[in-house]
Specification:
It comes from Paenibacillus agaridevorans. With about 280 residues, this protein is an alpha+beta fold. About 40% of the residues lie in helices and about 20% in strands.
């Protein structure tokens, strides 16, 4: 359960420094893991980004202080890291659904995001099917897009990217380029940007040979992978499997997660089918 304890230390650090300008490097240091690994773990276990969590908590505390009528809106905007009262009011309304001035009047309802407590239950009752694969270096080719994540996605993120690639024929074209060991279209998440709240997302395929026109490539180094089977409709079971990997499998096994992009492999022709079979590839060390 060391992972749970280290994540809680990082969360406690965030809570202690909610009024400070803290970086993801400082937060991840409390958990003794890299920013890359911390962001991925935090998002999978909590369904929010670190930036979203900090913003929600700050605006929750700001609402409590507004209710007490001890602070001016201008002072609270500065206290919680907003450059102008207008920026503060916009963020406040987005979270709570009402303006700060309405809180002063005692009208409307507020949303409280409470302090997060990580509790991971190592159940193990339901088996997870996986295999360990040693692979030499390999190349994938495809299309990359910087996608918003967390609260900022608003329908313009990864799902929209997949829709466009399916509609314009790029996904079908990638199928023709598959000639490596991984027999499926790949969804690859990499390079979380804390300031912009975005990730680099690739729709790609393993390909041996020259990079096709109009596409880019990623070279994965030789490493060890754990490959998890995912059965069921992908939009439901892929996220469920990720949560089980981080809440059950990792705490129960002696592997560390490598600093490589996560790979989802869409093998089924219809990933929405209730009997679809797909995979998650996670680099380990």
């Amino acid at each position: 359960m060391a992972m749970v304890e280290s994540l809680q230390r990082a969360i406690d650090f965030m809570e202690k420094h909610l009024l400070d300008s803290i970086t993801i490097e400082e937060i991840a240091k409390q958990a003794n893991i890299s920013p890359f690994h911390f962001q991925r773990t935090f998002m999978i276990l909590t369904d929010v980004t670190v930036g979203d969590y900090l913003r929600r908590r700050r605006l929750t505390l700001a609402a409590q202080e507004l209710s007490s009528a001890q602070y001016k809106i201008l002072d609270l905007a500065s206290k919680y890291g907003y450059e102008t009262p207008e920026a503060f009011s916009k963020a406040f309304r987005k979270q709570h659904g009402i303006a700060p001035s309405e809180v002063r009047k005692g009208t409307g309802k507020l949303q409280s995001y409470n302090r997060l407590m990580i509790q991971v239950n190592v159940k193990g009752a339901e088996p997870m099917n996986y295999k360990i694969v040693e692979r030499d270096a390999f190349q994938v080719v495809g299309v990359k897009r910087e996608c918003p994540c967390g609260e900022e996605a608003n329908g313009s993120g990864i799902a929209k990217f997949w829709g466009e690639m399916n509609e314009n024929g790029t996904a079908d074209k990638l199928v023709q380029f598959i000639n490596g060991e991984i027999k499926g279209i790949l969804g690859i998440t990499d390079n979380y940007n804390d300031e912009k709240n975005t990730v680099d997302y690739w729709i790609a395929a393993e390909h041996i040979g020259e990079v096709p026109d109009g596409m880019s490539s990623i070279d994965f180094p030789a490493t060890k992978w754990v490959v998890f089977e995912v059965h069921g409709s992908a939009p439901i079971e892929i996220p469920n499997t990720w949560r089980r990997i981080y809440s059950e499998w990792i705490p129960s096994n002696g592997y560390e997660i490598a600093e490589l992009a996560a790979v989802e492999v869409y093998i089924a022709s219809d990933p929405y089918h209730p009997n679809a079979s797909n995979e998650i590839w996670l680099a380990i060390k």
